[in-house]
């Protein structure tokens, strides 16, 4: 089960998508550390420019998330 990401846009490979949900995957050694840890992989469910659902899966550093503010939601 993932994290609800409605209300965010995601930039991936120079394209902007409306995010729906995100699932994080951690390395085993990262989970053992106390405090903050960064995910290794992300799987993000998005709506593409045609309104179709698409899954983007890559290393976490490849994604940038932006909160949708005001009436910007499309």
Topology:
Elements: E1 3-4, E2 8-12, E3 15-25, H1 28-32, E4 41-47, E5 53-59, E6 63-67
Antiparallel strand pairs: 1-3, 2-3, 2-6, 3-4, 4-5
CATH architecture descriptor: Roll
Mean pLDDT: 87
Say how many strands there are.
6
N- to C-terminal distance: 25 Å
- Name the overall outline: globular
Domains counted in the coordinates: how many? 1
Low-confidence segments? none
Question: What is the makeup of the main sheet?
Answer: 6 strands, antiparallel
User: SSE order in H/E notation?
Assistant: EEEHEEE
* CATH top level class name: Mainly Beta
Structure, briefly:
This protein has 74 residues and is mainly β. It has one helix spanning 28-32, and strands at 3-4, 8-12, 15-25, 41-47, 53-59, 63-67.
Write up this protein:
With 74 residues, this protein is mainly beta. It is built from one helix and six strands; from the N terminus they run βββαβββ. The longest helix is centred in the middle third of the chain and has 5 residues, at 28-32. Strands 1, 2, 3, 4, 5 and 6 form a six-stranded antiparallel beta sheet that branches. The protein has one domain: SH3 type barrels (Roll), CATH 2.30.30. It is globular, with a radius of gyration of 13 Å.
Summary keywords:
single chain; 74 residues; mainly beta; SH3 type barrels; 6-stranded antiparallel β-sheet; 6 strands
